[in-house]
Amino acid sequence: MKLLTGRIVLLASACALSLISTFGCISITETNRETDLGTNHISVVPSCQNSITNSHRQYEKDGSSRILFYEFECGSTTVYIQDHALNVDGKSYGTLNDGDTVAVNRSEVRVNSTPRLPLR
Asked: Is the dihedral of CA 9, 10, 11, 14 positive or negative?
């Protein structure tokens, strides 16, 4: 009986140690969520589990069309581009050129690695 009790304690200790070492290997990293809105590349930190990309296309009678706006929602961050005007979380950050990259890191907005302040 004493031998059985000793083995149970040893097995329980091994299981507890295994469980503790497993949790020690878990790490949480903040990765960014990225997308392209037209010709502009957007990245948002912190990452979100679910993101939504939306655009609205207007069709003309002659068969041509154009995008009226792009929108990217990642967690509580919303990036909106209309007529090259950049808007992040309801604040205007000026205009974008084709090919510009936009990085949103919490409340900081950078265009081509240069910080931008809200205009309004």
From this structure: positive
